[in-house]
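Quick one: structure tokens for this chain, please?
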Amino acid sequence: MQFDPNQLRALAAILRLGSFEAAAAELAVTQSAISQRIRALEERVGAALIERVTPCTGTRAGLRIAKHAEDVGLLEAQLSRDLSLEQKAGPARLRIAVNADSLATWFVDAMAQVEDVLFDLVIDDQDHSADWLRRGAVSAAICSGTKAAPGCDAVPLGHLRYLATASPAFANRWFDKGVSAATLSVAPCMTFNRKDNLQQKWIEQVIGKRVTPPSHFLPSTQAFVDAACAGLGWGMNPESLAGQPIRDGKLVALLADQPLDVALSWQVSRVMAPALAPLTRAVKQAAQDGLIRAG
């Protein structure tokens, strides 16, 4: 099935900007023209593509087709570069799944090395980002482990090191008798969201069994550091972010000799791998500078 490029651009613009009006303004056409394009595309597909709420969101089919439109833009840009053709005005768009801690510590350096790309980042736990690839909702992702998702290539990047950290006052209050199953079961910890199991992994690594401590939910990498410094709870913070607060005496490592190293890989759809080669090179370089080397 071939799609009308104008219809695809209209769909992608609506889902990116959240309204028919904003899409019309970006594409320099009337709102009526945008509506006609979407109606024609939905009739061709035989399914609704947009949830007409505020802001507009995509149905499963709509999101899949919008990603296809972005992939086509990237492939066309690659072809223009390969053949030294004059490229269309405007950068290509790329949707990637990345975990918040990588974004806060090293991944932005990779993004900054690539020109003519507008990034659309999906923030999700590294243990779940491969699900976005399986659904065809992103073209690439930072994932845990090195097992490739179906239809993808996986490039091992290294390990993101975490330290279990807390303020000195918190550590003295809750862990004055040491880190044990008893103290971990009552000391409040911090969790990014309900997918985050880093604290649990560290507990099992340290004491060899599962303990479920009381937990705050803070979906922000920087808030994890700030909350730990403030004495709200203990949590797993990237070593690169916790290092300065530790040196300043605002944080202490609960067990300095027990870091948690999380293996990360860069996974790319094989169809899109050639078009994303410049970004893949940038990701590998940034990971080499920002992660602990595998092995």
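The chain has a mean pLDDT of 90.
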